[in-house]
Design brief:
Layout: H1 3-27, H2 37-41, E1 49-52, E2 58-62, H3 77-87, H4 99-107, H5 118-127, H6 134-154, H7 157-167, E3 169-170, E4 175-176, H8 178-186, H9 195-204, H10 216-232, H11 238-245, H12 264-279, E5 298-301, H13 305-330, H14 334-339, H15 342-351, H16 353-360, H17 365-371, E6 376-380, E7 389-393, H18 395-403, E8 406-413, E9 420-424, E10 440-442, H19 448-458, E11 466-467, E12 472-474, E13 477-479, E14 484-485, H20 486-491, H21 495-505, H22 507-516, E15 535-537, H23 538-549, E16 553-555, E17 560-564, E18 570-573, E19 578-580, H24 584-599, E20 616-621, E21 627-633, E22 638-645, H25 660-663, H26 665-677, E23 701-702, E24 709-710
Parallel strand pairs: 1-5
Antiparallel strand pairs: 1-2, 3-4, 5-17, 6-7, 8-9, 8-22, 10-15, 11-14, 12-13, 16-19, 17-18, 20-21, 21-22, 23-24
Amino acid sequence: MKRSVKILWRTFLGGLLFVILLFVCAATGLFGKIPSIEELENPEADVASEIISSDGITMGKLYVENRSPVTYSHISKHVINALIATEDERFREHSGIDGQSAARAVFKLGTDGGGSTITQQLAKMILKQGGGNVFIRIRDKLKEWVVAVKLERNLTKEEIIALYLNKAPWPSDNVFGIRNAALTYFQKEPANLSINEAAVLVGMLKGPGYDAYRHPPRSLLRRNTVLNQMVKAGYLSAAEGEKLKAMALVTNYKAPGEKNDIAPYFKGSITPMLKEWCKKHNNPKTGEPYNLYRDGLKIYTTIDSRMQRFAEEAVQQHLPVMQRKLSVLLKNSSSKMWKEHEKTLEDAMRLSERWKNMAEDETPEAAIRKSFFVKTRMKLLAYNAKNEIDTVLTPYDSIKYQKQLLQASFVCINPKSGEVKCWVGGINHKWFKFDHVTTARQVGSSFKPLLYTLAVKEENYKPDTYIPGGPLTLNKKTINGEGGTLANGLAFSKNIIAYRLMSVIGAERTVAFAKDCGIKADIPAFPSIALGAAEIPMLEMLKAYSMFANRGINATPYFITRIEDKNGNVLEEFKQENKQVIGESDAYTMVKMMEGVVKIGTGKSLNEYKIPVAMAGKTGTTNGAADGWFIGCTPELLAGSWVGCDDPFIKIYSNNDFQANRMALPTWGIFMKKVYASRNLGYGTVTQFIQPANYDNVPIFIDQNFDSVLLAGGADSTMMEPVNGDSTDYSVPPPPAPPVDPAVPDTGKLMRRRPQ
């Protein structure tokens, strides 16, 4: 035998042995784990993690793929024919690998279709492969072939088709499987799909660029390609194919509905935290970090599903009232406002799905921009039974519409333990995903109790310590107004009194104290923080306020109690974090003064809700009523309410309906009324704030000029309400003398401190 022939044979046999060796390595798992037959037959072995409320309700699940499997008999034959014709014409003839198709793909470099069979594509989905360099792709292809052969040996062709269609991803967000795809794009069960509809769905499997909803022109061309393949494969006659191709692309798209999760904003906010936890904790069975979406973790939370429902109902009950008022106010002024903020609208256009989808279709920018000024039929959020409205509007105007919707956040915690009992981050999670609980907004006068606490704690101020009025300039900002006692200044949120306190205490000390109370937000050390110029998230404000109802002890809000594996083994438990910030007597003094806010001050309207326990709190409004706050507590609960638009430049000037006592306070009142009316929750056993044993039992007076209104002893108020809530200075005539209450003994200690 010639030497060249020997070399040729040796090369051929060596190559053959090498290929066989590669397949043996792939089959034995040396290139990575090969699924067992059981795993191949049941590829949905991944277990979703559950988020569980404190009252034992599953609030939501975390998973990679949301699917609803169907059997082969419940899938339209048109879908099956379209799939085979397009993806694998000899599907019923090969045993997992089609040598003819593979050779064609190699020699024609994929220009006449790929070489992967439906079975190989299924294997690739099961193995979750894709990407990487050439060596990784070769390794993955070998594993794919091995799994494809195993599938063919152990499953029928019908089972393979059904498994493929149940696992395949469609372009729309989180749409997996033929049933979800049929329901999303056509509002039909897969058994009822027509030939055209089947061709559209199969055509979309090529990739996101062929989404019938986002890219109709491309989807139409792809549908026609699928119909051509069906004609070629003999599933349709040429005449039938031409008739179907002449039809317009018609879908009935409806985005996958909300999954009816409880507290969806809460779920969205804790998911990144849970991912970080998983990165730091290994699953002992795999030696790898836990997978939040596959390992079936059980996350037990502090959220009470009943209180969560009350909070969401409170927001839904109050926000439509405020929205109607805002819409009236903006009817004539919004055009001027938007002319000054056109860049905001420009940015919103460029971030929209419309812009993104048209750009992907390579539409010229001028044409994209023009489309935003053409009226089109659309759905928008509305406060009606369906929570949406069908209307005709230009996309540009729809952006304005959505930005002019008031948003809200509401959180309630146990001030003693820090347990978060409910969490509402917006008005409707389907339409607005952004969580306002975790964002920082200007807090307005709700910051003032921290400044007052410093005055009580470190300057020995008392509730009846008199603070003079008149003009005061700090850092080139002048505030003017009438003076009054410390208690009066807090009850009526007098800016001049807060500014006087700032002149004594100083911005640096105030910021340091806020940090000591648990506020991590960046607070500028300027005198204006006395009036609430700082931007602080809701949870940090609640942490700071917790000391008032908790005997001076600061409780860190927390929302996860423990994490278990899918078998119920506890992986970690989470404890409350407490810190003594002020003395018990100082905390009680502040609570009593904050009761004045509710009894006769800027929060007086809270009494309309007939909540059967003591209440203390503070309103807050920022310039132009861009933000409205109310943070208040009962002896058992502490809650914060915020209302405002996403863009803080949307302000509402000179309107008493848009002060904090009307913007944010009603949500708080509605919620607490529901909570205390519920017998199942068990709140209401403690009706009054507990006075410390060593407290100097001196009546606390709240006055306008001197001592005019008695809080202790339950006397009724004759104080006039402030003119414009708590965001302006006050000019109120002196009220009559305080009533005499025989229930209060004459101790001779009225603590009337007047200017010396």
